[in-house]
Amino acid sequence: MDTYKKPSPEIETPAVCRSCEARHGGICSTLTVSQLVELNKYSARRRIDAGNEVIGQGENVSSYSNILKGVVKLSKMMSDGRQQIVGLQFAPDFMGRPFLGESTITAEAATETEVCTFPRSVVDRMVAEVPEMEHKLYDQSLKELDEARDWMLTLGRKTAQEKVASFLYLILSHIDPESDHRSTFDLPLSRADIADFLGLTIETVSRQMTKLRKDGIIIIENNRHVIVPDSDRLREAAGID
Amino acid sequence: MDTYKKPSPEIETPAVCRSCEARHGGICSTLTVSQLVELNKYSARRRIDAGNEVIGQGENVSSYSNILKGVVKLSKMMSDGRQQIVGLQFAPDFMGRPFLGESTITAEAATETEVCTFPRSVVDRMVAEVPEMEHKLYDQSLKELDEARDWMLTLGRKTAQEKVASFLYLILSHIDPESDHRSTFDLPLSRADIADFLGLTIETVSRQMTKLRKDGIIIIENNRHVIVPDSDRLREAAGID
DNA sequence: CGCGTGATTGATGTCCTTCAAAGAGGGTGG
DNA sequence: CCACCCTCTTTGAAGGACATCAATCACGCG
């Protein structure tokens, strides 16, 4: 982590960026060291408690963020209160467009979350300078589009049982990518959130969870902690393939 | 078609592009005349009958297309036959990524459709040369992401009545943008397609259509032709705002 | 301990599906 | 030109999956 070799000039990677996931897979991976230093001047780290909106009320509304830790839920609400979660963002995802667009989406921390925020203007300038950065953003939006469309199939055509299994499988594959073995994780969402994500009610989610438990597909501890003995069985229950 | 005037140098806008929607709002609007000429060398126009896949079977699978006319439906299918339409594309939308990605989406002409296809390699090269082109593509993917998420709310939280009204409103706003007045249009989708788009059955779609008709919100002629006397009432029925 | 929030479980209701049949064009061939 | 058929759509009756309403449980905290 501290390979100090200093190619030639006096600039080096900002300390906060060194262990940052975004510096690797994320947006910042497209930047040179000097660009990273520049961006870092204007960036700020923030911690967001579960249930709070990501858009800092004191902060400038027009800002972008990288998720460093935690899970953020993107949701849409109808005027009568009906709500639908339309996406989950994990580290090191980039968030930014959702806020300002015509499409009214709210971003809220599902778990305790840490983000790195930048003023919109600085990032916009860098995007103009660094084509790879826009490419990376484009790439993420395509990934999100794929995920959204996958979820449309889940929402429109799957049974409650398959929906809940699909959700568990989604979390599983984000927590523990490529797991053919026994896995264990904490759910980042409450039952109410899961219901809003799946287009169901809390009660139905609960019932389907206990059914999956009784079928031996999952083991539940403390309401939030889940063990998946065999991810293939979960996949099957989710109607995938 | 053969207006040979030659401004000053020897290049000019290809004839086929002149009246093309994509040259204006679409992807090609970012290109210079010479780039357009270059791209046009490798492009081909194709007519696709309703119900046929957009990916030409004889054509190279890895190709991009602009929609010139008609409506294309993007859909996903489960192994047991359940199907969900995850998006509709209208002229002058660009299509290209859907095919090759990991996410298995099939693109099929909903109506008689005309497309302008390009080999993937040529477009990829141009995207690398022209940052505005990538910007345009990025922009479209963000637009599609918004639409997908809007639809997730529809799929997850709206009633059958609201779903059907939402679909009609979607078509209305694509056919006749900004219409506060009486509008009339042909549905680009069959009842079966509408059902697959809304996550419903054919019968339910039919029932809700007749209900909307009996409530005076729409007038139906010949199963496909729809008249909307008051788009605000339709909006309301769709649960929008 | 009592309270509050979130989750589970049960009883009942309802919206949408499923199954079934009939109606409405549209094209073909006699 | 009309009979026939094919596909798409509509309409009806019955059933089921999920929602709603309501009570209980489980855990954490003052």
TrEMBL record, chains A, B:
The keyword Transcription regulation is annotated on this UniProt entry: yes
Span of domain HTH crp-type: 158-232
SUPFAM superfamilies membership: cAMP-binding domain-like, Winged helix' DNA-binding domain
Keywords tagged on the record: DNA-binding, Transcription, Transcription regulation
Stretch forming the signal peptide: none
InterPro entries, per database record: cNMP-bd_dom, cNMP-bd_dom_sf, Env_Response_Regulators, HTH_CRP, RmlC-like_jellyroll, Tscrpt_reg_HTH_Crp-type_CS, WH-like_DNA-bd_sf, WH_DNA-bd_sf
Domain Cyclic nucleotide-binding residues, every copy: 27-144
Keyword DNA-binding among record annotations: yes
Name the record gives this protein: Crp/Fnr family transcriptional regulator
Gene source species: Peteryoungia desertarenae
Lineage: Bacteria, Pseudomonadati, Pseudomonadota, Alphaproteobacteria, Hyphomicrobiales
